[in-house]
Every structure is written in structure tokens, then in C-alpha cells.
Specification:
This protein is α+β, with helices and mostly antiparallel strands and 79 residues long. It has one domain (4-77). Helix content is 32%, strand content 34%. Strands 1-2-3-4-5 form a five-stranded antiparallel β-sheet, covered by helices on one side. Strand 1 (4-8) and strand 2 form a beta hairpin. 15% of the residues are buried.
Length: 79
């Protein structure tokens, strides 16, 4: 299962249900895919197919909506 947390500027921010316990969010866009941790700080874990500009945009969105992502993580995974 891969629930969508939100969509913004064409990016889909979502979780994979069966993955590591460290807080992170996946991002998909027509050009690629990425994974960023949001705890203890926002940090890119991996990316494929994104430009630096796109990665910077995603990082800004994650930082701005970090509380929303964390709340969705707690609801989806518990705790």
C-alpha cells in the first residue's frame, strides 16, 4: 500500500507501508522518484531522474509541510 499524503506542484508525496521505521516520505513526478527523511531533519536519502532545481523545490515543500507529513506518518504507522 502506498497512501498519498498530498500533492503539490505536480509532485506526489506518499509513504510505502512496508519500509524502514525512520520517518521519510517518497516523492514522484513525471521525471523521477526520490526519498527524503524528515526526522531528525529534512535530508535527501535518494533520487533518480530529478534536476537540482526539482530537488530544491521538493525540499522546500517538505520543510514547509513537515508537521503535516509527520502527522500523516503517525496516523498511518501508529505512534
Amino acid at each position: 500500500m502506498s497512501p498519498t499524503v498530498f500533492r503539490e506542484d505536480g509532485y506526489r508525496f506518499h509513504f510505502f507501508s512496508l519500509e524502514e521505521s525512520r520517518g521519510h516520505v517518497h516523492v514522484v513526478f513525471c521525471s523521477g522518484t526520490a526519498k527524503s527523511w524528515f526526522e531528525p531533519k529534512v535530508e535527501l536519502a535518494m533520487s533518480k531522474g530529478f534536476s537540482v532545481k526539482e530537488l530544491n523545490c521538493m525540499e522546500t515543500i517538505i520543510k514547509e509541510r513537515k508537521d503535516e507529513i509527520k502527522d500523516a506518518w503517525r496516523v498511518h504507522f501508529g505512534g
